[in-house]
Amino acid sequence: MDFNMKKLASDAGVFFTRAVQFTEEKLGQAEKTELDAHFENLLVRADNTKNWTEKILRQTEVLLQPNPSARVEEFLYEKLDRKVPSRVTNGELLAQYMTEAANDFGPTSPYGKTLIKVGETERRLGGAERDFIHSSSINFLNPLRNFLEGDWRTISKERRILQNRRLDLDACKARLKKAKAAEAKAACEGDVPQLWSDEVEKAEHELRVAQTEFDRQAEVTRLLLEGISSTHVNHLRCLHEFAEAQTTYYAQCYQYMLDLQKQLGNSRGEMLPGTFVGNAESVSPPPDNASPTVAAAASSVAGPAVPTIPVVPTAVGAPGSAPSVEALNASDVKPPASGTRKARVLYDYEAADSSELSLLSDEMITVYSLPGMDPDWLVGERGNQKGKVPVTYLELLS
Q1: In terms of Cα–Cα distance, which of 264, 220, 49, 219 is closest to 148?
Q2: How many whole angstroms separate alpha carbon 331 and alpha carbon 387?
Q3: How far is CA 347 from CA 78, 108, 255, 285, 356, in A?
Q4: Tell me: the pLDDT tens digits for 327-371?
Q5: Quick one: which of 78, 144, 199, 227 could link to 57 by a disulfide (CB 3.0–4.6 Å)?
Q6: Alpha-carbon torsion 274, 279, 282, 286, what sign?
Q7: What's the CA gap between 292 and 298, in Å, rounded?
């Protein structure tokens, strides 16, 4: 018990001395041992690394999980060292609702069929999102957390020790300075008591010990700060893996949506009037009173399949009656006198049938619309080739 009380008193004395030294430094009444420029740069670099790592970590967590309540729940599970329960993604939940709606409306109806197709795509998107979140958490978030909770805590601990060693060193310098000043004053008065000589020797000894401890701690801290370079290399590798995971995720999403777009485009003719006719064989025979244009188009059925483009003429007859669709030979379609535009292709597109025109990314084509065409499609021309092209794949130029 007596030993503990002595230690407590000693620690209290050291703490008081450091507090006095720190206060005098802030007030400009005491000298402060300055670290070399290289060491100061290492400190600044370490602080910047810690601050930016925290910001990147928090924002990445928001990107992967926008719901703040879910983030708090995951944080609590991690702190309790328990497995985070599996959570259904928004895409998977939407797919479930669409499938249930399709079963309710009738899976064989046009609306039900489309709900099933879109729901399946949303399910695949949700699965891709789940894989992306899992991969990013392991390969990117965990290394950042490990640095903040491991290496940075060690660096902070050693920096605090170094700060204490510096305060002790500067306090010893101040005591030695005061002892020498008192000894000089006594010498000027013609009296040099042994007390001041012993005090100077004691202060010099304490200064040597403090200087040794400070130098040792400074070297330890320097080695840890220089290790920040290795941290940057590790974070660089993790950043590459995060970018690869994100690239894979968006590529999967893009491919899934392309597949869905083709499915919906192919099935649109079964559900909506006024669509493109894929093959000439699908054109029904014209009635006896059909216009010469329709008769000419129908007569081409016996020949090779030729892509056709729909033209919906102005309805003539009873008000409210639906206009009839005339299928014209693609080679006979002439661009309007005005209204043609240049367009740049944004993505590669593979024609689904002979009525469509395949596209290559970044190529330039001429496009125009015909009366009654589906607004999601245009007629595209590239040299002697002609066919329908999706508007979403184009950037229309003036």
Answers
A1: 49
A2: 9
A3: 43, 33, 12, 37, 15
A4: 445 556 667 766 788 999 999 999 988 889 999 999 999 999 888
A5: 144
A6: positive
A7: 10
